[in-house]
Amino acid sequence: AQKITQTQPGMFVQEKEAVTLDCTYDTSDQSYGLFWYKQPSSGEMIFLIYQGSYDEQNATEGRYSLNFQKARKSANLVISASQLGDSAMYFCAMREPPGGYIFGTGTRLKVLA
Amino acid sequence: KAGVTQTPRYLIKTRGQQVTLSCSPISGHRSVSWYQQTPGQGLQFLFEYFSETQRNKGNFPGRFSGRQFSNSRSEMNVSTLELGDSALYLCASSGRVVDTQYFGPGTRLTVL
Protein backbone atom coordinates (compact mmCIF):
# COMPACT_ATOMS: atom_id res chain seq x y z
CA ALA A 1 0.00 0.00 0.00
CA GLN A 2 1.07 3.54 -0.62
CA LYS A 3 2.50 5.44 2.31
CA ILE A 4 4.09 8.82 2.95
CA THR A 5 6.30 9.31 6.00
CA GLN A 6 7.33 12.64 7.44
CA THR A 7 9.46 12.02 10.50
CA GLN A 8 9.89 15.62 11.66
CA PRO A 9 6.80 16.80 13.56
CA GLY A 10 8.34 20.23 14.10
CA MET A 11 11.38 22.19 13.02
CA PHE A 12 12.92 25.57 13.70
CA VAL A 13 15.07 27.56 11.28
CA GLN A 14 16.70 30.94 11.52
CA GLU A 15 15.48 33.56 9.09
CA LYS A 16 17.53 33.64 5.83
CA GLU A 17 18.89 30.14 6.39
CA ALA A 18 18.01 27.05 4.35
CA VAL A 19 15.98 24.18 5.74
CA THR A 20 15.27 20.63 4.56
CA LEU A 21 11.99 18.90 5.31
CA ASP A 22 12.13 15.13 4.99
CA CYS A 23 9.71 12.90 3.14
CA THR A 24 9.94 9.23 2.31
CA TYR A 25 7.38 7.27 0.37
CA ASP A 26 6.45 3.72 -0.36
CA THR A 27 4.84 2.53 -3.55
CA SER A 28 5.05 -0.46 -5.81
CA ASP A 29 4.06 1.47 -8.91
CA GLN A 30 6.51 2.90 -11.41
CA SER A 31 4.38 5.92 -12.27
CA TYR A 32 3.55 8.36 -9.52
CA GLY A 33 3.69 12.01 -8.61
CA LEU A 34 5.09 13.66 -5.50
CA PHE A 35 3.89 17.00 -4.20
CA TRP A 36 4.58 19.44 -1.42
CA TYR A 37 1.94 21.72 0.03
CA LYS A 38 2.10 24.49 2.60
CA GLN A 39 -0.75 25.01 5.03
CA PRO A 40 -0.71 28.27 6.99
CA SER A 41 -2.86 28.65 10.08
CA SER A 42 -5.70 29.86 7.85
CA GLY A 43 -6.12 26.28 6.64
CA GLU A 44 -5.77 26.62 2.89
CA MET A 45 -3.39 24.17 1.22
CA ILE A 46 -0.96 25.99 -1.05
CA PHE A 47 0.78 24.02 -3.80
CA LEU A 48 4.54 24.43 -3.76
CA ILE A 49 6.25 21.93 -6.02
CA TYR A 50 5.77 18.74 -8.02
CA GLN A 51 8.08 15.89 -9.02
CA GLY A 52 7.09 13.13 -11.41
CA SER A 53 8.56 9.69 -10.95
CA TYR A 54 10.07 9.78 -14.43
CA ASP A 55 11.55 13.26 -14.10
CA GLU A 56 15.32 13.04 -14.16
CA GLN A 57 15.94 16.53 -12.89
CA ASN A 58 15.04 17.71 -9.41
CA ALA A 59 12.13 20.13 -9.47
CA THR A 60 12.65 23.76 -8.49
CA GLU A 61 10.17 26.59 -7.97
CA GLY A 62 11.73 29.82 -6.78
CA ARG A 63 13.06 29.26 -3.26
CA TYR A 64 11.70 25.72 -3.19
CA SER A 65 13.51 22.69 -4.54
CA LEU A 66 12.77 19.03 -4.26
CA ASN A 67 15.65 16.66 -3.57
CA PHE A 68 14.38 13.53 -5.32
CA GLN A 69 16.25 10.30 -4.65
CA LYS A 70 14.24 7.59 -6.35
CA ALA A 71 16.31 4.62 -5.20
CA ARG A 72 15.95 5.74 -1.60
CA LYS A 73 12.29 6.68 -2.13
CA SER A 74 12.80 10.10 -0.67
CA ALA A 75 11.49 13.49 -1.81
CA ASN A 76 12.82 16.11 0.57
CA LEU A 77 11.77 19.74 0.29
CA VAL A 78 14.50 22.35 0.53
CA ILE A 79 13.53 25.93 1.31
CA SER A 80 16.32 28.40 0.74
CA ALA A 81 16.61 31.80 2.41
CA SER A 82 13.78 31.18 4.88
CA GLN A 83 11.35 34.01 5.54
CA LEU A 84 9.04 34.61 8.49
CA GLY A 85 6.09 33.95 6.19
CA ASP A 86 7.34 30.42 5.64
CA SER A 87 6.16 29.46 9.13
CA ALA A 88 3.42 26.89 8.48
CA MET A 89 2.63 23.19 8.24
CA TYR A 90 4.20 21.43 5.28
CA PHE A 91 2.74 18.30 3.79
CA CYS A 92 4.29 15.82 1.42
CA ALA A 93 1.82 13.96 -0.77
CA MET A 94 1.86 11.28 -3.40
CA ARG A 95 -0.52 10.48 -6.19
CA GLU A 96 -0.52 7.03 -7.66
CA PRO A 97 -3.12 6.97 -10.42
CA PRO A 98 -5.93 6.25 -10.14
CA GLY A 99 -6.66 7.71 -6.77
CA GLY A 100 -6.53 10.77 -4.62
CA TYR A 101 -3.52 12.06 -2.82
CA ILE A 102 -1.96 10.24 0.10
CA PHE A 103 -0.62 12.77 2.60
CA GLY A 104 2.06 12.55 5.23
CA THR A 105 1.45 13.72 8.78
CA GLY A 106 3.14 17.04 8.12
CA THR A 107 6.02 19.07 9.53
CA ARG A 108 5.39 22.29 11.41
CA LEU A 109 8.08 24.79 10.47
CA LYS A 110 8.78 27.83 12.60
CA VAL A 111 11.07 30.53 11.20
CA LEU A 112 12.84 32.55 13.87
CA ALA A 113 13.70 36.22 13.46
CA LYS B 1 -8.03 33.29 -12.68
CA ALA B 2 -10.16 32.83 -9.59
CA GLY B 3 -9.18 30.01 -7.25
CA VAL B 4 -11.23 27.22 -5.76
CA THR B 5 -14.09 28.49 -3.64
CA GLN B 6 -15.88 26.63 -0.91
CA THR B 7 -19.08 27.52 0.89
CA PRO B 8 -19.86 27.87 3.65
CA ARG B 9 -16.54 28.51 5.37
CA TYR B 10 -17.82 27.61 8.80
CA LEU B 11 -20.69 25.43 9.88
CA ILE B 12 -22.05 24.25 13.20
CA LYS B 13 -24.42 21.30 13.29
CA THR B 14 -25.74 18.88 15.90
CA ARG B 15 -25.48 15.12 15.91
CA GLY B 16 -27.95 13.38 13.65
CA GLN B 17 -28.33 16.30 11.26
CA GLN B 18 -27.11 16.30 7.71
CA VAL B 19 -24.95 18.86 5.94
CA THR B 20 -24.13 19.83 2.37
CA LEU B 21 -20.86 21.52 1.44
CA SER B 22 -20.23 23.19 -1.89
CA CYS B 23 -17.12 23.58 -4.00
CA SER B 24 -16.58 25.60 -7.17
CA PRO B 25 -13.41 24.61 -9.01
CA ILE B 26 -11.01 26.80 -10.92
CA SER B 27 -12.53 27.74 -14.25
CA GLY B 28 -11.79 25.06 -16.81
CA HIS B 29 -10.98 22.39 -14.24
CA ARG B 30 -13.08 19.28 -14.54
CA SER B 31 -11.71 17.18 -11.69
CA VAL B 32 -12.79 17.84 -8.11
CA SER B 33 -11.56 15.95 -5.05
CA TRP B 34 -12.62 16.14 -1.43
CA TYR B 35 -10.51 15.58 1.66
CA GLN B 36 -11.18 15.48 5.38
CA GLN B 37 -8.60 16.88 7.77
CA THR B 38 -8.70 16.11 11.49
CA PRO B 39 -6.01 16.38 14.18
CA GLY B 40 -6.20 12.65 14.84
CA GLN B 41 -6.40 11.19 11.34
CA GLY B 42 -4.69 13.90 9.34
CA LEU B 43 -5.65 14.44 5.70
CA GLN B 44 -7.76 11.70 4.21
CA PHE B 45 -9.12 11.33 0.70
CA LEU B 46 -12.90 11.17 0.45
CA PHE B 47 -13.71 10.99 -3.26
CA GLU B 48 -12.91 12.37 -6.66
CA TYR B 49 -15.20 13.42 -9.49
CA PHE B 50 -14.42 14.00 -13.12
CA SER B 51 -17.02 15.04 -15.68
CA GLU B 52 -19.86 14.28 -13.27
CA THR B 53 -18.63 10.75 -12.58
CA GLN B 54 -17.15 9.53 -9.34
CA ARG B 55 -13.73 8.17 -10.27
CA ASN B 56 -12.36 7.17 -6.91
CA LYS B 57 -13.55 6.82 -3.37
CA GLY B 58 -11.68 6.71 -0.11
CA ASN B 59 -12.41 4.54 2.88
CA PHE B 60 -15.35 6.41 4.37
CA PRO B 61 -18.81 5.17 5.35
CA GLY B 62 -21.79 5.59 3.05
CA ARG B 63 -22.95 8.59 5.08
CA PHE B 64 -20.45 10.55 3.04
CA SER B 65 -21.58 11.15 -0.51
CA GLY B 66 -20.95 13.61 -3.27
CA ARG B 67 -21.87 14.67 -6.71
CA GLN B 68 -20.63 16.87 -9.50
CA PHE B 69 -22.69 19.03 -11.79
CA SER B 70 -22.28 19.73 -15.48
CA ASN B 71 -20.49 23.01 -14.70
CA SER B 72 -17.96 21.01 -12.61
CA ARG B 73 -19.21 22.42 -9.32
CA SER B 74 -19.34 19.76 -6.65
CA GLU B 75 -21.21 19.12 -3.46
CA MET B 76 -20.56 16.69 -0.69
CA ASN B 77 -23.18 15.55 1.76
CA VAL B 78 -22.79 14.01 5.17
CA SER B 79 -25.89 12.45 6.67
CA THR B 80 -26.55 11.51 10.28
CA LEU B 81 -23.68 13.58 11.59
CA GLU B 82 -21.47 12.21 14.33
CA LEU B 83 -19.15 14.08 16.67
CA GLY B 84 -16.20 12.55 14.84
CA ASP B 85 -17.23 14.26 11.61
CA SER B 86 -15.98 17.56 13.03
CA ALA B 87 -13.18 18.47 10.66
CA LEU B 88 -11.85 20.78 8.00
CA TYR B 89 -13.22 19.65 4.65
CA LEU B 90 -11.02 20.60 1.75
CA CYS B 91 -11.94 20.61 -1.88
CA ALA B 92 -9.32 20.54 -4.65
CA SER B 93 -9.59 20.90 -8.39
CA SER B 94 -7.37 19.98 -11.32
CA GLY B 95 -7.61 20.15 -15.07
CA ARG B 96 -7.27 16.44 -15.48
CA VAL B 97 -7.35 13.67 -12.94
CA VAL B 98 -3.56 13.30 -13.03
CA ASP B 99 -2.77 17.01 -12.79
CA THR B 100 -1.69 18.98 -9.74
CA GLN B 101 -4.57 19.69 -7.41
CA TYR B 102 -5.29 23.20 -6.20
CA PHE B 103 -7.12 23.52 -2.93
CA GLY B 104 -9.85 25.80 -1.66
CA PRO B 105 -9.89 27.47 1.75
CA GLY B 106 -11.92 24.65 3.29
CA THR B 107 -15.14 24.38 5.24
CA ARG B 108 -14.71 23.96 8.97
CA LEU B 109 -17.53 21.77 10.27
CA THR B 110 -18.23 21.49 13.97
CA VAL B 111 -20.66 18.85 15.18
CA LEU B 112 -22.08 19.37 18.66
Low-confidence parts of chain A, pLDDT < 50 over ≥5 residues? none
Supply the number of helical segments of chain A: 0
Cα-to-Cα separation, first versus last residue of chain A: 41 Å
Strand content of chain B: over 45%
Order of helices and strands of chain A: EEEEEEEEEEEE
Based on CA atoms alone, the radius of gyration of chain B comes out at 13 Å
Would you kindly provide a written description of the structure presented here, covering whatever features stand out?
The complex is a heterodimer of chains A (113) and B (112). Chain A is an all-beta fold and 113 residues long. Chain A has strands at 3-5, 10-14, 19-21, 24-26, 33-39, 46-52, 60-61, 64-69, 74-79, 88-95, 101-103, 107-112. In chain A, strands 2, 5, 6, 10, 11 and 12 form a six-stranded mixed sheet that branches. In chain A, a hairpin with a 6-residue loop joins strand 5 and strand 6 (46-52). The mean pLDDT of chain A is 94. With 112 residues, chain B is mostly beta strands. Helices cover 0% and strands 54% of the residues of chain B. In chain B, strands 2, 4, 5, 6, 9, 10 and 11 form a seven-stranded mixed sheet that branches. A four-stranded antiparallel sheet of chain B has the order 1-3-8-7, with no helix packed on it. In chain B, strand 4 (31-38) and strand 5 form a beta hairpin. The termini of chain B are far apart. The model of chain B has no long low-confidence stretch (mean pLDDT 94). Classes of the chains: A mainly beta (113), B mainly beta (112). Chain A binds chain B through residues 33, 35, 37, 42-47, 50, 91, 93, 95, 97-106, and chain B through 33, 35, 42-48, 55-56, 58, 88, 90, 92, 97-98, 100-106, 108.
Describe this structure in a few short sentences.
The complex is a heterodimer of chains A (113) and B (112). Chain A is mostly beta strands.
